[in-house]
């Protein structure tokens, strides 16, 4: 089965920690105003520190020509664990391969957590989708402070976790969940409708020379940025995992929202390991109903790589 979405415009908040693949995802989403009504970007510490993820989100907004979308800064550290970052992948500024500067437009006033609470409490029932591209700290803190916000949430679509693929920060854990497993646990237990795009699927949707050439052939500012960003960061992934191309993890969330028929998966019960030890941050996916627990997430298992890159290329062509 595939995830089903109504054809109407998706009211969307993107929670993000840019990060290389986050910036590609943001350009992808902001280039799709017919389908995605992006209400705000909310930033969190993750790939790099909060001040840098917040600046990079504002850069992505500027590059997409979408300064109308506010950016709210959120949590600067995980709920419980010590902060960790991924500068070894994303570079010291969180965006390698392109020049970094201070964007023209600043942050919106107020915290991302307050913004989430106020917006979701005031929203029509189950009307707002949240794309979670980094650690889930902001939404978890909002849920803990005001559990009633679930009333406004239509669906939470997460890039995170790993099951059959194995982890990318430890043998078991994917980075976003390892960075704040307690936050992921709070979201999993909240009862919201959840979809997970894990390394199981993102490692099947890989760049290739031909796919990058097609993006480069658009020859606009956005396409040049995406090619430079990806060329700089995918080499490490290719070497580390012995794969033929690089994944663009977070952008799969946007593709899923735009064209869910590119993906397939099933409803399962997901638990995150928050115990200290080698499995810390692991997502345990109960395929055989061994936990005897009701399914709490739609786990995406596979995706159409060619369809993904066709859609990404088509959307980047719309930008300057």
TrEMBL record:
UniProt entry tagged with the keyword Ribonucleoprotein: no
SUPFAM superfamilies according to UniProt: Nucleoside hydrolase
PROSITE patterns in the cross-refs: IUNH (PS01247)
A GO CC term attached to the entry: cytosol
GO molecular-function term, one example from the UniProt record: uridine nucleosidase activity
Highest taxon above the source species: Bacteria
Keyword presence, Hydrolase: yes
PANTHER family associated with the record: INOSINE-URIDINE PREFERRING NUCLEOSIDE HYDROLASE, URIDINE NUCLEOSIDASE
Name of the protein in question: Nucleoside hydrolase
């Amino acid at each position: 089965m595939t995830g089903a979405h109504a054809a109407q415009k998706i009211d969307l908040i993107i929670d993000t920690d840019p990060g290389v693949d986050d910036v590609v995802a943001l350009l992808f989403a902001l280039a799709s105003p017919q389908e995605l009504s992006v209400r705000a970007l909310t930033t969190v510490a993750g790939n790099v520190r909060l001040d840098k993820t917040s600046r990079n989100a504002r850069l992505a907004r500027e590059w997409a020509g979408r300064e109308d979308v506010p950016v709210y800064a959120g949590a600067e550290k995980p709920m419980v664990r010590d902060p960790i970052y991924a500068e070894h992948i994303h570079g010291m500024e969180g965006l390698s391969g392109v020049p970094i500067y201070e964007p023209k437009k600043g942050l919106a006033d107020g915290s991302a957590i307050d913004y989430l609470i106020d917006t979701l409490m005031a929203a029509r029932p189950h009307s707002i989708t949240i794309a979670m591209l980094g650690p889930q700290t902001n939404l978890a803190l909002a849920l803990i402070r005001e559990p009633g916000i679930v009333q406004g949430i239509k669906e939470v679509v997460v890039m995170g976790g790993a099951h059959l693929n194995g982890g990318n920060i430890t043998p078991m854990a994917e980075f976003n969940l390892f960075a704040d497993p307690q936050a992921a646990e709070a979201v999993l237990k909240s009862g919201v409708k959840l979809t997970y795009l894990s390394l199981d699927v993102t490692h099947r949707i890989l760049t290739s020379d031909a796919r990058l050439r097609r993006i480069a052939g658009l020859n606009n500012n956005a396409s040049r940025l995406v090619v430079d960003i990806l060329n700089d960061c995918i080499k490490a992934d290719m070497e580390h995992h012995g794969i033929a191309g690089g994944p663009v993890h977070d952008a799969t969330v946007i593709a899923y929202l735009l064209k869910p028929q590119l993906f397939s998966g099933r409803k399962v019960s997901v638990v995150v390991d928050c115990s200290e030890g080698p499995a810390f941050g692991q997502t345990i996916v109960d395929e055989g109903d061994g936990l005897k627990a009701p399914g709490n997430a739609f786990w995406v298992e596979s995706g159409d790589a060619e369809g993904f890159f066709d859609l990404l290329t088509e959307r980047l062509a719309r930008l300057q």
